[in-house]
Amino acid sequence: MDTEAFAGHLLTMADSYRTSDIHILPEQKHYDVYFRLNGQMEKQYYLDREEGTRLISYFKFLSNMDVGERRRPQSGSTTFQLSEKAIDCRFSTISNYQSQESLVIRLLKQKEEDSLVPGTFFSQEWEKLERLVQAKSGLLLFSGPVDSGKTTTMYHLIKNRMQGEKQQVITVEDPVEIEERSFLQTQVNETAGVTYEHLLKSSLRHHPDVIIVGEIRDEETARMVIRGALTGHLLVASIHAKNARGVISRMQELGVGLPLLKQTLIGVAFQTLLPLYCPLCGMNCQTYCSHHARGKKRLALFEVMTAEEMGAVLGDSAVGESLSNASGSREFNHLLEKVYVNGYITEKTYHRYFISNA
């Protein structure tokens, strides 16, 4: 099979498996190709060095990267046309000390029908989120590791909010990960000067009911999100933090004071996807095991705090201690322990996801 045909086959298989990432990694004399399935790296193909090098060069060419440059890291993107659909891909290369390149391909715009049906361990936290997202205005923040389903959760909640009622929803993302026809989706383009700040300002002038912000990355984006919440819009955004309490600290680090957070913040959620234990596999449920359906081998664990629960925090600079008292027994580590004790996850998974110094 030539390089172009194999590239198409590789992406077709990855899409059919609902793979989030493809990793093409150099070994001493060959390349291994892995799919990230349910959060785990699983080896799929063996390529000799020449085949692996040609494949990486082909993807670099498609994504407008410098094919001849192997020393410095590069990134790119393209839309790949498969037989029945087009998929958006993001590419990232980096070389090891022997100048052997590795390539990671992230597959975007997975099927909305499947990806927008989240599975959760506890209904109480999900019901909290469904109540919070009905608010007319305010700021609802989500945090969690990469590939923890934050975008899926935000989309699903807002789609539920729209049931039986026409609303204008604008998304500001980099890049758009899930194609949703009922939303007005916008995408950051730094090359063209279209930044998060620019899109947020334009979105506010469009007078939407809800704005979804892919990620709060810097002080300017944080200020614009707060401004939007103050002007009567519902803002739903993600931000990187260690846990729910870390979201407050992170917003302060980005220059947002406690008084403004107290006025705008209606809730904070931290989430992650935990691989389910399988009695047939004797470990996390493997890709080809039928005990848990494909796409249902991980469930979301949420820690959710409402404005009332955060009241002590937002009025006191002692963030950590106050939040601990406010959140009680529904903190992430406590819920993680309940999941483990009830046999849904392995001991290894429990220790891996336990948040130290929380």
Automatic annotation (TrEMBL):
Cited CDD domains: PulE-GspE-like (cd01129)
Keyword ATP-binding: yes
Molecular function terms from GO: ATP binding; ATP hydrolysis activity
SUPFAM superfamilies: P-loop containing nucleoside triphosphate hydrolases
Keywords, comma-separated and alphabetical: ATP-binding, Nucleotide-binding
Domain Bacterial type II secretion system protein E: 204-218
GO terms under cellular component: plasma membrane
UniProt xrefs under PROSITE patterns: T2SP_E
Database matches in InterPro entries: ATPase_ComGA (IPR047667), P-loop_NTPase (IPR027417), T2SS/T4SS_dom (IPR001482)
Pfam families: T2SSE
Cleaved signal peptide residues: none
Family, per entry: Belongs to the GSP E family.
Listed name of the protein: ComG operon protein 1
